[in-house]
Amino acid sequence: EPTVRTELMEQIPPIAIFLQESQPTFPAAFFEYLMPIVVRYLTDVNNQVRKAGQEALLILLEQDLVAQSDIENKVCPILLDLSAPDSDDEYKVEAVNIICKMASMLSRTTVEHMLLPRFCELCSDGKLFQVRKICAANFGDICNAVGQEATERLLIPKFFELCCDSVWGMRKACAECFMAVSYTTSPEVRRSQLSPLFISLISDTCRWVRQAAFQSLGPFISTFANPSSAGLYIREDGTLSIRPSAQDVSSSSCQPSSNSTVMSPSAGAA
Question: According to the record, where are the HEAT repeats (predicted)?
């Protein structure tokens, strides 16, 4: 029964946490018995079971409970199969979604060598606009996961394609994550490539795209600032923040010295 398999998936993460805390007693139980079930349920015929399996996998990755070898040898191959060009549409949409969500939880080497080539292919998927939409919405996270070199060499050309997509929702998603993409690139790429691209979005024929671009204008401009003089920096969670100057801190000892968040790169016209 699908409901039984779904319930089982919901119990996997707490069981895995228990096993991790009791490793002397159960040294390999999770890797031998539970992880294969999670992987198998990613391809279950029932979509609710698959969704539960995907959620369980993300929790396990968040808690750092999955071994690197399992990620590379079991999880990634399944996701690559599900996101292949000839894969079922529903499976492909789910696979690209899970790839984007898990990218920030994996090592840069794993993402760049195993998932990035497929992500670039999916950005140009001419069959399903839903696939391209997921890629566009998560583009900044992928850039952050692989770093500047891979972003400029492989991802920026794909970003140009998505910013010129015939579906306005794609262009709007690109406008919303523009700051995150810009922050990952060099100043020269920002000036010579991304600035003209942003102008095209802010002049788009669709008002929803223009609105999203105008809302991202300030955050995009902030990526040109020198962090040491402007006090702007990106926190680990991807939010743009202001670091108080030493003078401000010393002159207002009664004020809290915590940083103030200005804008999240993924925040759009919600």
Answer: 115-154
